[in-house]
Design goal:
It catalyses: Hydrolysis of terminal non-reducing alpha-L-arabinofuranoside residues in alpha-L-arabinosides. It is a single chain. The chain is mainly β. It contains eight helices and 33 strands. A hairpin with a 5-residue loop joins strand 26 and strand 27 (about 460-470). Helix 4 (about 315-325) crosses helix 5. Strands 1, 4, 5, 26, 27, 28, 29, 30, 31, 32 and 33 form an eleven-stranded mixed β-sheet that branches.
């Protein structure tokens, strides 16, 4: 199929756009042309591992401390403290609750009892009809009758409740208690309450509340992990960046301290981001999550250098590799086996600047957009880049603004177009608004096509074109993405060279647009669909594609190709790429 063929398509997209954004009226329009060379000879394969995800534990503005236990009742009725009485040698701190009131008499407890409560991380999301396992260790100086309740945010509604009753002999030493509660109502800001009306001293340790229905049964919230899976990441970088180093190595993430029974993990103070973590999400859990997502783990191991000191950790890194990859009868492979995973994990990558060089960028939205051209002049003969951390930060970011998404989308297009100089890309925040990421979920392993854009003194456009094969319908598409970062409407004529004019099926071709009335608009729990892509079918009248790009928008055109007349590049070994 020679490049002399020119497909002539026309899409008459009538788009009346009147918008007020951040208090400004936008008028006028810009004109331009975009030529896409979709011929086989122009295609360049994007690395299979191009787009991934990155777990960064916290940060200076988003500390993830679990809230401390709060007290239910007056100080004259209950005193709560901690001591070093836990049965776990590596985790000695336990909670001591001294109840001064009693079930009857002059100093009787209030009818609802006294005790402690904990909202988890910013409130527990309890859903009606679902079951939750409460596990805890308890001991007491006498018999106990403790109410375990999941309460709504108003503290009036009991979503689920039960009692644990034990004689003094049963709880004179530490005893593990597990109960399953079924929620009778829903509240996204619930809390766990442990109360009693009986005088005495009760110690609690290692208290947890977990839904029984988790992602593949491995403890992760199904809804959150499904969002990660929808990003179709080709790799998962963990457990963080500065979090791994620590300000001092005594406070660094040390993988051996994060495996084994959760109760035995000592946890550590992250002195870079200034919060405590119990390391319940440890090395094993990260490897398990990567496996559950069907993606490749990239372990950011501690190379012995923190911000202030250094030690030799080469043997620790080698042991970590054996834990992940070793046979079940090896020293560290046996530890993995004991944790319930006899087969080795598919650990192929370590994050260390040897084969690739690391590139991080945190900046404003406009600067992020302009950095899409950063790699245009990068060497194609030396090591490739691993853009392992990037994000719009500061006032432009908000809590996930459309302005941030717009700048990052333009940056991603630039990375995609320079995929011969970049091997991997991962966004810094793990949980993000997926509405702009959906435009790039098919890029890993796809074929990049050359594009030529001509505009008159308007540099607020970023564009790219790829061919990709859908894993859902096994069909091949030509995707043209365009980000209009500017405040003006842009009219562009798109011509596609290198395709047989009869090879495009417009009946299955679509246009997807993401935009918003205000640049600082955000999706939230109250308005989860405030900013969402809109998709429509394309129409044609036989000419070139004449498209209108709204101000501040991301637009994607997916042209369905007749695969019978198109050769798929690397079809034998690459699942999702085509010419």
């Amino acid at each position: 199929m020679g490049s002399s063929w020119k497909a002539t398509f026309s899409i008459v997209l009538l788009y009346l756009f009147v918008s007020k954004c951040c208090g400004s009226e936008y008028g006028g329009s810009q004109m331009g042309t975009l030529r896409v060379d979709a011929s086989e000879s122009s295609g360049q394969l994007i690395p299979q591992t191009f787009f991934g995800i990155f777990f960064e534990a916290g940060g200076p503005n988003i500390p993830s401390n679990i809230a401390p236990w709060g007290i239910i009742g007056k100080e004259s009725s209950v005193i709560v403290s901690t001591d070093r009485s836990s049965c776990f040698e590596r985790n000695k701190i336990a909670l001591k609750m001294e109840v001064l009131c009693d079930s009857k008499g002059a100093n009787s407890c209030p009818s609802e009892g006294v005790g402690i409560y904990n909202p988890g991380f910013w409130g527990m999301n309890i859903e009606q009809g679902k079951q939750y396992k409460v596990a805890l260790y308890v001991r007491s100086s006498g018999s106990i009758n403790v109410s375990i309740e999941l309460k709504a945010s108003n503290w009036l509604q009991k979503l689920a409740a039960t009692n644990i009753i034990a004689s003094a002999s049963e709880v004179s030493d530490w005893k593990k208690i597990e109960v399953v509660l079924e929620a009778k109502g829903s509240d996204s800001n619930s809390s766990l309450h442990l109360t009693t009306t009986s005088k005495g001293v009760i110690w609690f340790d290692q208290v947890s509340v977990m839904p029984l229905d988790t992602y593949k049964g491995h403890g992760f919230r199904t809804d959150l992990i499904e969002m990660m899976a929808d990003l179709k990441p080709r790799f998962f970088r963990f457990p963080g960046g500065c979090f791994v180093e620590g300000e001092w190595l005594r406070n660094a993430f040390r993988w051996k301290e994060t495996i084994g029974p959760w109760e035995e993990r000592p946890g550590h103070f992250g002195d870079v981001w200034m919060y405590w973590t119990d390391d319940g999400m440890g090395y094993f859990e990260f490897l398990q999550l990567a496996e559950d997502l069907g993606t490749l783990p990239i372990w950011v191991f501690n190379n012995g250098i923190s911000h202030q000191d250094e030690v030799d950790t080469s043997s620790e890194a080698l042991d970590g590799i054996e834990f992940a990859r070793g046979e079940a009868n090896s020293t560290w492979g046996a530890v993995r086996f004991a944790m319930g995973h006899p087969e080795p994990f598919d650990l192929r990558y370590l994050d260390h600047p040897a084969d690739l060089y690391d590139y991080h960028v945190y900046t404003s939205s406009s600067d992020m957009f302009s950095r899409g051209r950063h790699f245009d002049s990068a060497s194609r003969s030396g090591p490739k880049a691993f853009v392992s951390e990037y994000a719009v930060t500061g006032k432009d970011a908000g809590q996930g603004s459309f302005l941030a998404a717009l700048g990052e989308a333009g940056f991603l297009i630039g990375l995609e177009k320079n995929s011969d100089a970049i091997d991997m890309v991962s966004y810094a925040p793990l949980f993000v608004n997926t509405n702009d990421r959906r435009f790039f979920t098919e890029s890993s392993g796809a074929t990049l096509h050359k594009t030529t854009l001509q505009m008159n003194s308007y540099n607020s456009i970023a564009e790219s074109a790829i061919s990709w094969k859908s894993s859902e319908d096994d069909k091949t598409y030509l995707r043209i993405k365009i980000v209009n970062y500017g405040a003006e409407t842009v009219n562009i004529i798109i011509s596609v060279d290198g395709l047989d004019p009869n090879s495009v099926k417009l009946s299955g071709s679509t246009k997807t647009v993401l935009t918003s009335k205000n640049l600082m608009d955000e999706n939230s729990f109250k308005e989860p669909n405030k900013i969402v892509p809109t998709q429509s079918l394309l129409e044609t009248d036989g000419g070139d594609m004449e498209v209108v790009l709204p101000p501040h928008s991301i637009t994607s055109f997916d042209l369905l190709k007749e695969t019978s007349s198109i050769k798929i590049a690397g079809a034998d070994s690459i699942a999702r790429s085509s010419m």
